[in-house]
Amino acid sequence: MRLYYVIRSVGAIAVCIGLTMLLPLAFSVYYDDGSTQPLVQSMLIVLGIGLPVLLFTRRFDQPYMNHRNAMTIVTIGWIAATLIGALPFFLAGTFGTFTDCVFESISGFSTTGSSVLTDIECVPKGILMWRSLTHWLGGMGIIVLSLAILPFLGLGGMQLYRAEAPGPTPDKLTPRIRDTASALWIIYLVFTLVMIILLMFGGMDLFDSICHTFGTLATGGFSTKNLSIAYYNSAYIDAVITIFMLLAGINFSLHYQLLFGKIKPVFSDPELRFFLLVVAFLILVTAFVLYQTTYPGLSQSFRYAAFQVSSIITTTGYVTADFEIWPFLSQSILLFCMFLGASAGSTGGGMKCMRIMLLLKHIYLELFRIIHPRAVTQLKFGKRLVTEDIIRGVWGFFIMYIGLFLLSSFVLTALGIDLVTSFSAVAACIGNVGPGLGSVGPTNNYAHLPVVAKWMLSICMLLGRLEIYTVIILFVPEFWRK
């Protein structure tokens, strides 16, 4: 373990995040909302720590990157980002306790969207912009951003990329990992600009358009309104956000290929077809149930079903309806979506469609082997052969995911929280979804939960965003042995 390189890398990440505070600072100055001082103080504190770290570690430019360094940098980097993100909230007095500041910050960076704000519209716009910006930074990944702009990280960055990128087999788009990171962020930026313009055409002002775009493309869900997207009551805005939520839930390597005219590989991708088929099926079933029980019109039922299903399966968390008053079947579908999640390589959370597909294929293969014990069989994903290492990793992830879900739910119930709230809150946080059911439903928030529950759910959000392995492995004694 080269500790100095870990310190240098985390210092560089801190500087990157500190500089991004210029955007909310500009809005704070424009609106003169009283948040300018805490934002300036936060930026000075972060840069005052990060820049000296970079200055005094310049002689260690030669990277020494292995899986230990990579996972340590990613985990500590994300913890540092969480603390940095909490600074403006704390200095502005947005929340009453430091726990709430950390909860909102990790919820932002992990793109979960679970909030402890009770009145969002009373918060200064500069702070709200920072809150939404943490989504946008965390969506594509703060490490991937650092790889794109910091040359000394890019030289040994493949391990960093693998440690942060979601999915069992992260795609490397170009020979140089720095070019891959840059390509991903360019696509992300183009989507961002297009969506901001489209939302402004729908009647949103620039501020709300930027904030809701950040929340959509990062599949985060922080809104500037207490009623979330329901505030606008606009079919056009619902449609735009639904389309971009689904785009954000698709593997960004496919967007990259489509950009260069490679249409056939995109539409022949098995995960994309699975994801779109599942989304279409669940929307149709939900719309049918709502038409029979809740809404008088078919178009209205389809509109609300499409938005809510797309929002939850991509783990965005925006809402246009109170789905707690929906029939139990519709709520069960949304709960299933929390676990399933979006595609690998997207900004969405959850288990990822690729993992679910591999698990189902492996189960079927084992059944086939029982029936035909002498048959020579291989597990394939599309045209690619899936190795035993990948399958073991997927099963290990699945077991740890369910184990963490059950353990965390047990902790919350031990604190006196009801079963529905406990189970859905953990599912929403580990899946980076946001709203749950019960007392953390779409019209409620997480402010009323005990302090211990908030810290437990904060850990779940971090583990969910970094796909469990990256964090858990740091607590294995063998990890630190030579």
Radius of gyration: 22 Å
> What is the average of the pLDDT values?
89
Percentage of β-strand residues = under 5%
Distance between the termini: 9 Å
Label the overall shape: globular
Briefly note the structural class of the backbone: mainly alpha
Short description:
The chain has 482 residues and is mostly helical.
Label this structure with key terms.
globular, 66% helix, single chain, 482 residues, two-stranded antiparallel ribbon
Description:
- There is one protein chain.
- By secondary structure, the protein is mostly helical.
- It has a domain at 389-480.
- The protein is built from 22 helices and two strands.
- It has helices at 3-20, 22-31, 36-56, 67-92, 98-109, 125-140, 142-149, 151-154, 158-164, 177-201, 206-217, 235-248, 252-259, 263-267, 270-293, 298-313, 328-340, 353-371, 388-414, 419-430, 451-465, 469-472, and strands at residues 380-381, 384-385.
- A two-stranded antiparallel sheet has the order 1-2.
- Helix 1 (3-20) packs antiparallel against helix 3 (36-56), helix 10 crosses helix 11 (206-217) and helix 19 packs antiparallel against helix 20.
- The protein is globular, with a radius of gyration of 22 Å.
Topology:
Layout: H1 3-20, H2 22-31, H3 36-56, H4 67-92, H5 98-109, H6 125-140, H7 142-149, H8 151-154, H9 158-164, H10 177-201, H11 206-217, H12 235-248, H13 252-259, H14 263-267, H15 270-293, H16 298-313, H17 328-340, H18 353-371, E1 380-381, E2 384-385, H19 388-414, H20 419-430, H21 451-465, H22 469-472
Antiparallel strand pairs: 1-2
Helix pairs in contact: 1-3, 1-4, 1-7, 2-3, 2-6, 3-4, 4-5, 4-6, 4-9, 5-6, 5-21, 6-11, 7-10, 10-11, 10-12, 12-16, 15-16, 16-17, 18-19, 19-20, 19-21, 20-21
